[in-house]
Amino acid sequence: MKSEPQDAFGFRLALALGYPHPRYLRRELTSHDIAEWMAYERIEPFGSYQDHIMFAQIAAETFNAGHKESRTVYDYLPGGKPAQTADEQMSTIRALLGR
Asked: What is the mean pLDDT of the chain?
């Protein structure tokens, strides 16, 4: 079976929802349901990426408390600043949901 980009998302969603494997999700969720979860994850990341965000926020706040210069979450987030702004992400989500 060829690996597809959504495979990684399927595993993250299975972990987040307590399923042992993504194939169980496919039995219960429609493609529309999965598209909604993908859109939701863009707004509220879950899984290890959410952990990165949380720890990056703590690191930035800790640094800023003891230094004159300021750092942001993006200074500590793997990959740095996202390619899209929050407004651009919302436009993408609305397009995915047909709104």
From this structure: 82
